[in-house]
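Blinded run. Sample ID left blank on purpose so nobody reads anything into the name before looking at the predicted structure. Input follows.
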Amino acid sequence: MIFAPSAAHPWRDVWPLVAQSGDGNRWVSGTCWLYCRREGVRVLWVGTVSTPGATGDVYACGPCVAELGHMVRVQSHDRDRATGHAVGAVPGHASQPHALPRH
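Blinded prediction complete.
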């Protein structure tokens, strides 16, 4: 079996599969803090959010983790296209937030 070198694939297109329940990650039962806001579902910790008065742990269900990953990849593709970055380059942190992608 012959594998293509990883340099031939843009970094944003070779991300690992989205986390799924039963994949060895630390899934717990709880409320999805992202798009669906369902309660009593399997969720995965995806990060911490800070607001002016408090911080909290953010949990998301599998479909919402997948949607978040999709939105990040769309934004990255659009940013690369707009700035003319080379395909495969890992962009640095932007100083200004970018507009959310439209679906």
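Unblinding after everyone has recorded impressions. The two ends are 38 Å apart (CA to CA).
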